[in-house]
Amino acid sequence: KRGAILFFVLSEMSLINTMYQYSLTGYLEVFEFSLRKSIPDSNLERRLNNIMGTLTLNVYNYGCTGIFEKHKLLFSFNITTKLEQDRGNVAQDELDFFIKGNLSLEKSKRKKPFAWIQDQTWEDCVRLARDFSQFTTLLDDVENHEHDWKKWYDSDTPEQEEHFPMNYSERLTPFQNLMMLRCFRVDRIYLAVTQYVTKVMGDQFVTPPVIHFEAIWEQSTPVSPIIFILSPGSDPTTDLLKLAERTEFGVAKVKLLAMGQGQEKIAINLMEQAISRGHWLMLQNCHLLVKWLIELEKHLDKMSKPHPDFRLWLTTEPTPLFPIGILQRSLKVVTEPPNGLKLNLRNTYFKISGQAFHDCPHEAFPSLVFVLAFFHAVVQERRKYDKIGWNVSYDFNESDFRVCMTILDTYLKKSIANNDPKIPWGSLKYLIGEVSLVISF
Which of 87, 263, 309, 389 is the most buried (most CB within 10 A)? Predict the structure, then answer.
């Protein structure tokens, strides 16, 4: 039953973005992998719990690999609510209210008692009190204890359960707390949902996995393409070539082709060669030739006994015209900076090899790399605020960080060579802050 619930959660993601297509065959591979990796136990009940826990986390990681950052919390929340509904902790009408609120066009006869309460807030409260027994006294409580409710309403962190007025958090379920918060402070719902998922499922369900190219390669098969769904500024080509070097596959066996008008026959010829010789073929910018992808799908269907080393890598921007057949049979990967400073730092450090810290003998290098990584994370986070964050939109990506790290390494090595104990702050600030990232400190 757990497996069926999780599969339908995955399937429903296609309603958010047409690129999020998952087949039953691909899901069964995750299911079988979870059976093998779950901790064995002689006790049947504990064994089943181990399998369900492992499967749930693996499905979360599998799904997060191929969806954009802005949809990952929604994915976690959907998993959580579906499982909570199965346990009987969340009713469907509660979920409907949380999503929609009070949709009635008729204004309630009972007028809001205070000016600080917004009209829609009061209408939502009226429906909450009318339809849910746990909130029958809500309207009277608000009216009779204005000070407590106004204090909570004005709080900087109203989502914290200890801040709820009149001990409401103690008599409500975690999801009902969300329902009440939704009425008064919808602006805090994002954080509240994160806390809810963490409380019910654990931290690992709000911490998406770091994209690891070795893991992607290990999960892939010759008959399943790997599709990189591009976000602004991302380019997996360099990472793919580095992967070929690290795995000793060889860059010479990696064939790249930027798709465009007139490239169709070349692509088919390269693919046939790659299938027979065991090469990696990357077709870039497939969204420019979406109609031709149907032809590509036919060739993939006809493919029989490909070389075990053959891999087909595709890059594309999100497009509703992308063939569903290819999407469902493929392993989808989205490469973009994660949300939040903590996850961004983790992602950056994950991509820095341990050898990089030993290559520079300067004792300040590790500390300065952290400062650089933190600065890079802040720069990327500010993009969320559009014109308030940066006047001119620019995709600060991993390449920018790598260049800055190289500058850091070069100047610190130069300091050691010149027996100069001072860190060249002026040069570093100028080259990193104003040249590499085009920012005025």
Answer: 263
401 near 376, Cβ under 8 Å?
yes
Residues 6 or more apart whose Cβ sits within 8 Å of residue 55: 2, 3, 6, 30, 31, 34, 35, 38
CA dihedral 339, 345, 347, 352 (to 10 degrees): 160
Q: Residues 205, 76: contact at Cβ < 8 Å?
A: yes
| Token pair listed for 17 | 């973005």
Query: What is the SS3 assignment for 178?
Result: helix
Distance separating alpha carbons of residues 8 and 59, to the nearest angstrom = 11
Residue whose entry in the numeric block shows the structure tokens 């191929």: 66
Q: Do 294 and 262 form a contact (C-beta atoms < 8 A)?
A: no
Residue with tokens 């990584």: 373
Residue 228 sits at φ, ψ, to 5 deg, of: -95, 115
Would you kindly state where each structural domain of the chain is located, as residue ranges?
Answer: 1-67, 92-204, 221-335, 341-438
Alpha helices in 132-263 (DSSP H): 138-144, 146-153, 168-171, 174-184, 189-201, 213-219, 237-246
Indicate the CATH number for domain 221-335: 3.40.50.300
Which helix (DSSP H) or strand (DSSP E) does residue 284 occupy?
strand 280-284
